[in-house]
Amino acid sequence: MNDMITRSASELAAALAAGETTSVELTQAHLDRIESVDGALHAFLKVDGEGALEQAAAADAARNAGEATSPLAGVPVAVKDNIATLGLETTAASRILEGWKPPYDAHVVERLKAAGMPILGKTNLDEFAMGSSSEHSAYGTTYNPWDLERVPGGSGGGSAAAVAAFEAPLALGTDTGGSIRQPAAFTGTVGMKPTYGAVSRYGALAMGSSLDQIGPAARTVLDAAMLQDVIGGHDERDQTSINRDWPSFADAARAGAEAGSMQGLRIGVAKQYLDGEGIDPEVLANFTASLERCRELGAEIVNLDLKTTEYAVAAYYLLMPAEVSSNLARYDSVRFGLRVVPEGKATTERVMSATRAAGFGDEVKRRILLGTYALSSGYYDAYYGSAQKVRTLLQREFDDAFTKVDVLAAPTTTEPAFKVGENINDPMAMYLADLTTIPANLAGLPAISLPSGLVKGLPVGVQFMGPSGEDARLYKAAAALEHDLVTEWGGTLLAQAPEIKEAQR
């Protein structure tokens, strides 16, 4: 394996700035790595080697000409396949969009290109981001680089696996109920869900519009912060985009690592998580050990009672499917995408029914049906309306909590990565995998997951959540803890991962 590809994105950026390598060399090294291991992983749905090398050459030319470039100029990146890329197939891992090449770039892709970051390709996911294992892709399962018999999490398992396997130093994901953070925990990487509205959703194929958020997948907290600096900011095409000046997240991460301290930080912990209901005992032990490290670094641990969190999963699985039902109504065989014409009289209704039956997978159909039922006459108030009330109570509870503490902490997941096929026929088990990540989405809060150690030989993570708009606070806190852990480990957790072998699967 080329030693260059194991470096962090910030280290690669420094090497480019110092003239130690070129973007073309870096991009080719990552393309070679993809060719070498992705047959086993299936992290990518589409690799755009030609386009990536062209973008890399342009980044090198700009640097050589002395033109102003972004800190990550020339560093390659991967993009989750539910984010639109001009002329590059974007399917959301669904048959209903097979072959679709968007006539536009998502806002975040525009930002990547303006920053001179070559796009290696599109990563696999659960269809339309609906899943917690990356097994619900219409184009096959993605596997965990730590153990090819296990899932990498979902829905953004492809992005997390690509970063963990050194196929890409950075990737973009989307997080509706944990789809960046849960895969990060399962793969020993870092994942950040920014404040709702901090990163434009323009060009992200909508699942749950009041919940979806694009964010970075990376190997270090600083790398994630640097990528959010690139993709964040106001976009008038997204009506939920926040119009404000954001601080440098990279500076916040550097400050946390350099301080090596959490002195004065108040960390809140909900008793609902410490009780351990539904959480693997070893995962809980790892979490409490992480809290003790924070205490040793100077943080104050404050126990809280967040009663509404126990209703978060139930509320989410009413609100999200309702929005899914509405958003996916556009895939109707008439305007774009797949069209299946049944035998006999081809009425619009029959073509639409045949197309949606063939084009959507079982999990997508399940959520459409759940959402349509929740929104139906006679049930709207009892289900959708009640779930919205729970959401409001949860938001108020978080607001109150942040008058007492600076950040909240929780285990990112309830267990380490489970085996492929283990939960595929148990929707409830899949849904409960998001137990600790969903609350941040319902409240629109920023939340970050970073590796906190190994359980049963597999990575797990600790999650920090902060008040709306305080993304920099999370980067600073996470970087301080990461610095302490990495010092003990002698490098990132990924240094302990086994090398990928085709025979493992």
From TrEMBL:
Keywords, comma-separated and alphabetical: ATP-binding, Ligase, Nucleotide-binding, Protein biosynthesis
ATP-binding among keywords: yes
Keyword presence, ATP-binding: yes
Superkingdom of origin: Bacteria
Main enzyme class: ligase
Catalytic residues (positions): 80 (charge relay system), 155 (charge relay system), 179 (acyl-ester intermediate)
Chemical reaction(s) catalysed: L-glutamyl-tRNA(Gln) + L-glutamine + ATP + H2O = L-glutaminyl-tRNA(Gln) + L-glutamate + ADP + phosphate + H(+)
Record Pfam families: Amidase
UniProt-listed Enzyme Commission number(s): 6.3.5.7
Boundaries of every Amidase domain copy: 25-474
Quaternary assembly: Heterotrimer of A, B and C subunits.
Function, in words: Allows the formation of correctly charged Gln-tRNA(Gln) through the transamidation of misacylated Glu-tRNA(Gln) in organisms which lack glutaminyl-tRNA synthetase. The reaction takes place in the presence of glutamine and ATP through an activated gamma-phospho-Glu-tRNA(Gln).
UniProt record similarity statement: Belongs to the amidase family. GatA subfamily.
Name the record gives this protein: Glutamyl-tRNA(Gln) amidotransferase subunit A
Organism, scientific name: Gulosibacter bifidus
Gene name as annotated: gatA
